[in-house]
Records
---
Amino acid sequence: GAGVSQSPSNKVTEKGKDVELRCDPISGHTALYWYRQSLGQGLEFLIYFQGNSAPDKSGLPSDRFSAERTGGSVSTLTIQRTQQEDSAVYLCASRPASGRNQPQHFGDGTRLSIL
Amino acid sequence: QQQVKQSPQSLIVQKGGISIINCAYENTAFDYFPWYQQFPGKGPALLIAIRPDVSEKKEGRFTISFNKSAKQFSLHIMDSQPGDSATYFCAASKGDYKLSFGAGTTVTVRA
């Protein structure tokens, strides 16, 4: 079956521009996560959506970052007024709702480069 | 602050050798400890996972050892193969909440 799909795979933009990153989770997965992976670093949690509950935004680094999830499926991560330190790989993961300790399944990410 | 500390940062092993990666955590509420494997340009893929009520779990050539009292867990890759060359991340979570990741270990297996 199809895995987590992210688009675009690569994005190059100028400092100060806004960017939108898209995530299509695995069908039927109700939990969706965004992480950021800077060069040579581990993954940093950004935001977590679970069903119709209010999202956990505790990992968002600044108010320039926002995310939404429409219809409980597709999610968009938006970065406004991009800065060079925003350059990283942005990874999306989804997980089934049921079952204890179900694994998170990751997409291949969007590599964002801010010039 | 980093909730999961991983070492070494990198390691080189000969084909057929054993690769060992160690992780330590502070949050005693963590109850799920997965390991992910990541190849360049790809997202992390779940390799093996353990819960704290088990001290060891083995899947093929991959084994997790877990020491709850020391708050440490490790990944052993037996009979390492060139195809195992990748970056490995340990992680921890409470229930199905967000994962806290280690910084990663780059493993190179020399033929």
---
Amino acid sequence: AQRVTQPEKLLSVFKGAPVELKCNYSYSGSPELFWYVQYSRQRLQLLLRHISRESIKGFTADLNKGETSFHLKKPFAQEEDSAMYYCALSGFGVQGAQKLVFGQGTRLTINP
Amino acid sequence: KAGVTQTPRYLIKTRGQQVTLSCSPISGHRSVSWYQQTPGQGLQFLFEYFSETQRNKGNFPGRFSGRQFSNSRSEMNVSTLELGDSALYLCASSLHLGGSLTGELFFGEGSRLTVL
């Protein structure tokens, strides 16, 4: 079964402090992991994907297959980072078709 | 390029009624997925359609159904509404390349359903 766990529903840090949003997954195959973000009054949108190994808005995430984790990190938080963050896993469902499974999300608040 | 469009944006129904929600994907996107978003459960996968075929279904009762048309537009239907069906229903479209999803879903703004 495909499962994504985000242990923190709420996370609050001060501006300029480091941020780490935790994500653990369960999947027997080779997963593709993503982080999606939803800013206030905006649509849910892709932030980054592990396969690209990119840094978006200062955020990075490394896939650790040994620990089955895909934590999202940023060294210096900005107020505009306040949003809801979802970790997602793309695996295969029935008929060989892929589906995206989301964690429950972490609401990140950056305090001034 | 126009984004994913969902209608209606808001609706109020009473228990026992049924509802149909509509989704127009981004032009060229042939995969459409539906999610239910609630504060307690987060984003729950409902189903995914590609070329008018349902390829994946989440763990929802049979009251939840959907379909996709030849122009990739999709509808979902919920019959015999219950109070617990109150939620934001999100539609997302995706580009489908070589048999695999690219993994990037483009979401609509959602249809907020309130069941009284």
